Amino acid sequence: DLSPSSFVLAGMPGLEAARFWLAFPLCSMYLVAIVGNGAVVFIVKTELSLHAPMYIFLCMLASIDLALSTCTVPRMLSLLWFDWREISFGACLLQMFLIHSLSAVESTVLLAMAWDRYMAICHPLQHATILTNPVMAKIGLAAVARGVLFFLPLPLLILRLSFCGSNVLSHSYCLHQDVMNLACTSTTVNVVYGLTAILLVMGLDALLIALSYFMIIKAVLQLSSRKELVKAFSTCVAHLCVVLAFYVPLIGLSVVHRFGKGLAPLVQVVMGDVYLLVPPLLNLIVYGARTKQIRRQIL
């Protein structure tokens, strides 16, 4: 058989008895992420005073989190509550494309936010003239285009593989590395392209974010006023928390896939779930709840 009609998603290996109850905290996290991020998008969109670069980027981030959660969590809940483990080949490829491309879009937006912080702190006079609304729209479109162009080839590369053995995945959703590992033909092209795309998008973004923070810290330490110093650091710490919440699980998941062959199946499942569930919640807490203007509007 060249390609299976469906794949079987992993549940909670070793925790089958508690599977039904584990779905409730997952469902609660999903509802909080949906309501909270939805509120952030609505408030930034309707409140004219929040049409500033920082809030527009925040709105973009919340929209991505909404999309990323919605393309994975309902499927995971149906698996845990109703034991619907089977996912069709086409649905699996679509989910794979959405997960990888939305992650790339989020990475680009985090880079744009780091650039926004750099401009606001190091070049405050030019900040408002450079980061205009048309520029923000172009950044948003560029982020989406970059995610689609780099990660559309992944499901297409899966289509050329032959599958003749097991069709059981090691996560509760479809990832390129996971599906690729089930193939019984050579996956060299998939490995090389997948790694190149990750390095050129997430790797490059992480490097540029680190560089912008190096410049920011250098500029902040030269500020004479203690009040300005505290203010600059507090905005940067919030963004750094969000950056770490995105990149640390992403790196952890990649490491588990590359070198974690001997690890318990549950570790892979949990790492995968953390990668998808933690950033939408943490972004909401760090930005939505900490940002005075948004908190005031929500209340």
From TrEMBL:
The chain crosses the membrane at residues 20-43, 55-77, 97-115, 135-159, 191-217, 229-251, 263-287. It comes from the Eukaryota. InterPro entries: GPCR_Rhodpsn, GPCR_Rhodpsn_7TM, Olfact_rcpt, OR51/52/56-like. It is found in: Cell membrane; Membrane. CDD domains: 7tmA_OR51-like. One of its GO terms (molecular function) is olfactory receptor activity. This is Olfactory receptor. It comes from Terrapene triunguis.
